[in-house]
Design goal:
single chain; 1 helix; 12 strands; 39% strand
Length: 160
Amino acid sequence: MTRKGDHWAVDVTIPALDARGCGMGLFADLTRGKREPLVLRVPDYMEARPYGNPVCNGVSTGDTISVKGLTPTVVIPKGKWMSLVLNGQRYLYLVAVDAVANGSGVASVQVTSLLRRPTIDGAAVELAEPKIEGYVPANQSADIGTLPAVGLQFSLEERD
């Protein structure tokens, strides 16, 4: 059942890094991520396309986003990640069905979950490099062993 407020979380594994170099610095950044939002690029396995400069077209609610500024006739494929930037905060969505921009560069993009906030006319739509923004859950911990390297695993859960 789709509910307004559904959101994403990702699990990330970073191979061991030199603890004297960037390993401990990254560990400090991730520790800050428990109280400050982090932004990570979402791995996207779709073929790169010339999306143009997409932005929200008016106010959208429900599970369909009107997008303008697209390259005419470009296809936004089913399974494509996209993020919206609304009032300085990113929201991650997954495209539910193929969407095709019309000759004016406008498309209606259906996503797999209900929008958590109404869109804002002109708000950025990140298709080429979608991102997730959120916090590292408070119960995350790291194991720093005796080797001079730090390997990290963490989750990042979208903020409300």
